[in-house]
Amino acid sequence: MDGMAGLGTRTGGQLIADALVAQGVTHVFSVPGESFLDVLDGLYERRDQVDLITCRFEAGAVHMAEAHGKLTGKPGVAIVTRGPGACHASIGVHVANQDSTPLVLLVGQIPFAETDRDTFQEVDYRKMFAPLAKWVTQIDDAARIPELMARAFHVATSGRPGPVVVAISEEMQKARVVVPDIGPAKVLPAHPAPRAIPRLLEMLDEAKRPLIVMGGTCWSDEGRAAVRAFAEAHDIPVTVGFRRMGLFDGTSQLYAGDLGVGADPGLVKLVKQSDLVLAIGSRLGEATSQGYTLFPETGATIVQVHPDPAEIGRVFRVALGITADLNAFALALRDAAPAKPRPWAEWRRSLRAQREATATAPDYAGPLNFARALQALEPELSDDTIFTCDAGNFATWLNRFMHVREGQDFLGPTNGAMGYGAPAAIGAAILNPGRCVIGLIGDGGFLMTGQEIATAFQHGAAPILIVVNNAGYGTIRMYQERAYPGRVSGTQLTNPDFRKFIEAFGGHGELVTATDELVPAFRRARASGLPSVIEVRLPMEQVTHRATVTELRAQAAKS
Description:
By secondary structure, the protein is α/β, with parallel strands linked by helices. It has 3 domains: 3-177, Thiamin diphosphate (ThDP)-binding fold, Pyr/PP domains (Rossmann fold), CATH 3.40.50; 196-357, Rossmann fold, CATH 3.40.50; 359-558, Thiamin diphosphate (ThDP)-binding fold, Pyr/PP domains (Rossmann fold, 3-Layer(aba) Sandwich), CATH 3.40.50.970.
């Protein structure tokens, strides 16, 4: 409880600001609206404790808050206005839902006395957000603010983390009440059942080709290190789920690669040979399971660990389900399973060899070999670099040819949301001003939310955005060439000079058209200390890192 704050009369707006402080919130991302002026005024009084980040578009604000949730394991917070503001923000709620990211979205609401009159910007948020959020509520009584806000934060982090939406009616924010604040619920993390880990170790003793699949969110450094220590002690190869590259050291001899959209076919083939799959935090969803086909084909025994029992066995029947906090499970597993000689060294070596083979850069045509440029960039990056990515084929270049190392973070939208990468990078840079933040973004996604670079300037953040420009929606063009070769429709783009775009804000711009230009461009961008854009011009002909447009058309002609 916030001692003195609960003793006097406060407005609803002050109570909401105080509730955020009571829940430990340090940053709030917002596009202002008249529907929550009283909350803005309450945050003015708390400006020494909560940084209010003024954004340029509601989707960008919620993406920044979602990145905050991914990095900290605590709910990111965004506040938007009613109607259009909430609609713009909904994409960020969808990201948080599918990515299992803790998030609290506050939405200004109409005066509750005007409900069901189709008043200006009226929306029933319980109905609107019901399929997207873990919980949706509306506060009409100021006296219930501490209770409902505390519950919102608890729901966002309990079980499978996710988004909570709280509508705050306009006149409620002006009401004055006397009510104490409520702090976070002190809940001990759920530990594995007594027989869970002994049974898992028995199953491991019976295996010949085990495999770990890491996924999920809210991992601590200690939890990730515990999984690595266990895997090293038992020589078990490790893969990560779709866009979860930050969970395991990509330079480790145990790392076998990522399972997801664009996964290495050689890796998928080997995974089908595994006889024990230990899924820690992974829901084994559509992308990771290669369209729900991979794990039935393996015939492997599946052990699934997840904090939400409803997610265990949701799609695939498991031989053992373990409901536990991921970090608590990892520590318990490490401590219960000392090093033991294992007979599957050749199995582990084959997976690592496949990973190293697929990471070898081919001889791409033209002056820019993007694979080799990225690999030359890798040694330049600090051990605490934060990567963000958008949705698109360009992102798979990093997955295949670079290695996210221990201490680095990777943030990407598992729901495939374009427009995520730039605001996520900006949010990450605001939260971590001393760390190098690199956003990898396509030209299409960048022009969806690239204007948020203004937020970086306003709040003193300096991310480096690598914008891959192929003058088109590359992923859709790839599918188009497979299904309707040569019939290009709706996927071509006309772009600005991205260097001049960032320079118009006062930032640093670079253009890369050849392999050896990326590293010097990065060094200059880093040295500038400014928000930067490095435009990389990659021809549409090289539509993926595995095929050209010409090759896709030839393949389609044979089918």
